[in-house]
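Hi support team,

I submitted a single chain yesterday and got back a structure, but I'm not sure I'm reading the token output correctly. Could someone confirm the output below corresponds to the sequence I sent? I've pasted both exactly as they appear in my results page.

Thanks,
R.
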Amino acid sequence: MTTHRLAATAVAGALMLLVTGCAGTEPAAGDPTTDTSTAGGSWAERSVGPVVLKIPEDWTELSRSDDGASGVTTATFGLPDDGSTVRPGITVSIQEEPTRDASAEAESLVLGERAQRGAEDVEVAELVRSDAELAVGVSLWNEQRSAEGPVEVASRWVVADLAGGEQVVVGVLGPKDEFAELPLDEVLDAVELAPESDPS
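Hi R., thanks for writing in. Yes, this is the structure output for that exact sequence:
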């Protein structure tokens, strides 16, 4: 299995983790949490490789995988399992040595979502980001299976090639009918890629 396919599989697995059907998932151990002040109040800052996230305090790390052999790191953060059909959250996948650029990876993400889950209202656009060599945004919604039957899930993604050579795929998702009311746009917009290290 290629590195690209491993990353795509990791993203799909993270999506399924946030759709109920995996009750009883325990939070994974992760980096210490630091409170930060954001527009929505006090949020937690978490790091996954070159990616820094700012997430609501009640979100927890649900999974993390670092496959040194494939060069793929993944992590998923979201609400603990409270019985909801879809738990809002964010997933991160990092490829150390990508085999194609962010535009091609975004296209592959869309093709996969259309083929596997019938993605609707797909929008793809190149993004201007000072922290990436090339970044592409994707938004869509689709119907996913859950323990309680089909459920409509909306998601937004950023696929980015970093100056260090890594490729990052970061996505937020939540129930389609509640997406606008949840802090998902704010979480994705607050993502920092390859932030400068603190000189102190």
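A quick pointer for reading it: The helical segments are 3-18, 102-117, 184-189. Let us know if anything else looks off.

Best,
Support desk
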